[in-house]
Amino acid sequence: MPTLFKKRKKLDLELKLYLTNLVQNILNDPEYFSELREEVKKKLQSLRKNKGKTISFEKIKKKYLNE
Q: Which one of 19, 23, 31, 43 is at 20 to 30 Å from 55 when CA atoms are compared?
């Protein structure tokens, strides 16, 4: 039985090292989550085309800071 525990510890360590490495690679790769669904791409494109109403900083400042 002692060899079974040694194998288990080795496996646990290897798994832990693998998972640690995987998580580090994901977090350090800026393009990891760059794949977007088509519906999200379309929504982003439509938002970029439709600028919408904008409010100047001066109007916002006047409204909320009472200056």
A: 43
Sign of CA dihedral 62, 64, 66, 67: negative
| Count of other CB atoms within 10 angstroms of residue 28 | 8
This prediction has a pTM of 0.38
Cβ atoms 44, 38 nearer than 8 A: no
Domain count within the chain: 1
Write the CB contacts of 26 (distance below 8 Å, at least 6 apart in sequence): 32
Three-state DSSP at 67 gives coil
